[in-house]
Write a structure and sequence with these properties.
The complex is a heterodimer of chains A (319) and B (248). Chain A has 319 residues and is of the alpha/beta class. Chain A has 2 domains: 2-170, Rossmann fold (3-Layer(aba) Sandwich), CATH 3.40.50; 199-318, Rossmann fold, CATH 3.40.50.1220. Helix content of chain A is 29%, strand content 27%. Chain A is built from 9 helices and 17 strands. In chain A, helix 3 packs across helix 4 and helix 5 (214-223) packs parallel to helix 9. Chain B is an alpha/beta fold and 248 residues long. Chain B has a single domain (2-218), classed as HUPs (Rossmann fold, 3-Layer(aba) Sandwich). Chain B is built from 6 helices and 15 strands. In chain B, the strands form 3 sheets. A 9-stranded mixed β-sheet of chain B has the order 11-10-9-12-8-1-6-7-13, sandwiched between helices. In chain B, strands 2-5 form a two-stranded antiparallel ribbon. In chain B, helix 3 crosses helix 4. The relative contact order of chain B is 0.18. Classes of the chains: A alpha/beta (319), B alpha/beta (248). At the A-B interface, helix 3, helix 4, strand 7, strand 8 and strand 9 of A face helix 3, helix 4, strand 9, strand 10 and strand 11 of B. The complex binds flavin-adenine dinucleotide. The site of flavin-adenine dinucleotide (FAD) has 26 residues of chain A, from helix 6, helix 7, strand 16 and helix 9.
Chain lengths: 319, 248
């Protein structure tokens, strides 16, 4: 038996989140005494899978899978689950993988666990730890169904190198045509996305207005970070909705989260709490964010941030 | 058009999260329950469609009697009819099975769920319903435009927006953007009075098996105190991030 990892790729490159799902799957396989099979769709460079523990790769090349249509992708996985007698499916926490996980759950009539942050503590019963109450708590949940579908939370397990020499098996799949069509994809090119980012630089109402966002962008740029904002900032139209993080916005699980001019309301913190290291810059020493942060500077963002930018530029030039 | 909005009854976003009975149960003491925010964006959109699309809007919850005030609120906001499938919800999967079973006979054109609930964060109910009923499914929706039997939907993806087109019936995962926060309807006196006259039906559950069971909950460990750096010593912060936290 084998564990199936859906390794998502984009522009012929496997995503970082896919390699994390693979690392998780490989470790789970060792625990369960099973090997891991990566499902690759329309990709032809498997190097990164070979560096992160793939035992087998199922290589599917199919025009009708060029765009991510959830039904079609679920159909492919369904066919593989049957032909390879798969019992465990590992997905990342990318938007598309979570979308797929939920749909697969209904199609395979099996449990889907999102936001899983650790290897199961036990295999029999199968006990996973996941976040719930929007990162304010964890639950230990037993998965009862025979087939188990798991989304690994971003940056929870890490990417582990493990060089392998996998078998590559090309297979054909049959896809029924779907009435669902993707008409348009608008994506910022080049910018780091919040979901993929190691570092997120986030601004709040303390920045006073959109005209000051060059500070956030400059700092993010120097750190290779994604930019984000608090809810009022997107409500006021200073920044796009896609940057709104928190309980009602996007979740952030980066290695480093830098909050500038953000008070640290409970709904904001809920969404960013699973970030590993949190830094706050705020001129009010009583701001609740200081209770949630690892590092903080009490000071005026308009003085501290330019200073920080200058020091980082100097550091980058020296390296 | 016939619309179903699935409602989850969740602790208000400001609630203190605690657990009782050895960490096996959520502590409801002093907690106010509300419509799951993602569901409320969907409900608001559905209520708008009563006018624009002559839609009939049914709200549904799988739960015990304690969820009824939340359903009444949905009626006050503008839903025409509320249904409670009577059982204590076990897991997202069994809830979705109950909803699918009910929906099979009703021929909804559109089934709206929230992208996820803010308590369990499973994010699965809509997907499972669509998977079981073999309906189209689109989640993280930020825009919806229905013409005849055709839906044009925008959804948030990592780093952008995708626009899709499909036929009804459709299961939709709602989130902010589908309507804005400022669009949410605060029930007025008339709405509240009318809600009392609207039907709130209780239906017997099929009691499908759960595919997962929560064994227990716990809260994160207490955090260490924040390390403060002086505003004129930002070098120190860079040093800490580089050499102590090792994140840059
Ligand atoms: C149902 C619900 C859901 C919500 N969901 C979310 C969510 O998902 N995400 C979210 O972010 N919020 C959410 N909120 C809103 C949340 O409660 C707060 O109102 C919001 O997070 C505050 O944003 P802010 O910190 O940018 O602004 P403010 O609270 O106004 O804070 C601004 C901060 O900037 C500081 N400041 C001012 N000037 C300077 C300066 N020159 N230099 C440095 N610091 C300065 C101030 O001291 C203050 O702490 C939600 C609220 C509700 C009711």
């Amino acid at each position: 038996m084998s564990i199936l990892i859906y390794t998502e790729s984009e522009n012929n490159e496997f995503k970082k989140s896919a390699l994390e799902a693979l690392s998780y799957g490989k470790a789970l396989g060792e625990k369960m005494g099973e090997n891991v099979t990566c499902l690759s769709i329309n990709s032809n460079n498997f190097n990164s899978l070979k560096q992160h523990g793939a035992d087998r790769i199922i290589d599917i090349q199919n025009q009708s899978l060029e765009k991510f249509i959830v039904k079609n992708y679920a159909e492919v996985i369904h066919q593989i689950v049957i032909s390879e007698s798969i019992k465990t499916i590992i997905l990342s926490s990318s938007a598309n993988s979570k979308y797929l996980g939920a749909y697969l759950s209904g199609k395979l009539e099996s449990a889907y666990m999102s936001n899983v942050i650790e290897l199961p503590s036990e295999i029999n019963p199968f006990l996973v730890k996941r976040t719930c109450y929007t990162n304010k708590a964890f639950s230990t949940t037993e998965i009862k169904s025979e087939i188990k579908i798991i989304s690994v939370s971003s940056n929870s397990f890490g990417i582990i190198e493990n060089v392998t020499d996998p078998d590559i098996k090309k297979i054909d799949v049959e896809i029924k045509s779907s009435d669902l069509k993707i008409k348009k994809i608008d994506k910022q090119t080049g910018a780091v996305t919040i979901a993929d980012a190691d570092i997120v630089v986030s601004g709040g109402r303390g920045l006073k207005g959109p005209e000051n966002w060059h500070l956030i962008e400059k700092l993010a740029n120097l750190l290779g970070a994604a930019t984000a904002c608090s809810k009022p900032v997107s409500d006021l139209g200073w920044r796009p909705h896609s940057e709104h993080v928190g309980q009602t916005g996007k979740p952030v699980a980066s290695n480093l989260y830098i909050a500038i001019g953000i008070s640290g309301a409970i709904q904001h913190l809920a969404g960013i709490n699973s970030s590993k290291v949190k830094v706050v810059i705020n001129n009010d020493p009583e701001a609740p964010f200081f209770k949630a942060a690892d590092y903080g500077i009490v000071g005026d963002a308009f003085e501290v941030v330019p200073e920080l930018i200058q020091k980082l530029e100097a550091r980058n030039n020296n390296n | 058009m016939n619309i179903l909005v699935c409602i989850s009854n969740v602790p208000d976003t400001t609630s203190k999260i605690n657990f009782v009975e050895n960490g096996t149960k959520f502590d409801k003491n002093g907690v106010q329950f509300v419509i799951n925010p993602n569901d409320e964006f969907g409900l608001t959109k559905a209520v708008w469609m009563k006018e624009s699309h002559n839609a009939a809007v049914t709200v549904l919850t799988v739960g015990d009697q304690s969820v009824e005030p939340t359903l009444r609120k949905c009626l006050a906001i503008g839903a025409d009819k509320a249904i409670r499938i009577d059982c204590s919800s076990k897991d997202g999967f069994s809830v979705a099975k109950e909803i699918s079973h009910f929906s099979q006979k009703e021929n909804f054109d559109l089934i709206i769920c929230g992208r996820e609930s803010i308590d369990y964060n499973g994010g699965m109910v809509g997907g499972v319903i669509a998977g079981i009923l073999d309906y189209n499914f689109i989640t993280n929706c930020v825009d919806l435009d229905i013409k005849g039997t055709n839906a044009l939907v925008s959804r948030e993806i990592d780093g952008g927006i995708e626009t899709l087109e499909c036929n009804l019936p459709l299961v939709l995962g709602a989130q902010k953007g589908l309507v804005e926060e400022s669009d949410l309807i605060i029930p007025n006196m008339r709405g509240i009075m009318m809600a009392r006259q609207k039907p709130l039906e209780t239906i017997e559950a099929q009691n499908f098996n759960a595919e997962s069971i929560n064994q227990g909950y716990h809260k994160p460990d207490a955090k260490k105190e924040v390390k403060l750096v002086k505003a004129d010593e930002v070098d120190k912060l860079i040093d800490l991030l580089e050499n102590e936290a090792k994140v840059i």
